[in-house]
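Review form for a predicted model. The reviewer records the input and the model, then writes brief findings.
Reviewer: anonymous (R2)
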Amino acid sequence: MNIASAPTVLAATDLVSGSHSLYTIGVGVLVVLILLGGGARAAGAFFGGRIGATVAWALTAVIVAVVVGSGYAIYTSTKRTVDRTGITTGQFGQ
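Model under review:
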């Protein structure tokens, strides 16, 4: 009976780990799209003769991409720590 249930648990574990990889790929694609969108707006502003808007769009795209990417990295790091230690973020101050 235990032998028959082991593949089911393994399959569920693989499914969960696969979904985490999918989220990571999705965040990477989102960051690239943010950078491409900001770059396109900056290029449009540059060829329109608006240098200030060019710099603003480029900086905005980079800042938003960094916030999204680092926020996801912090989330995954915190989740890994909580899963390993059992200490939640609310317990760090106690």
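Findings: The chain has a mean pLDDT of 82.
Further findings: The longest helix spans residues 2-47.
Recommendation: see findings above.
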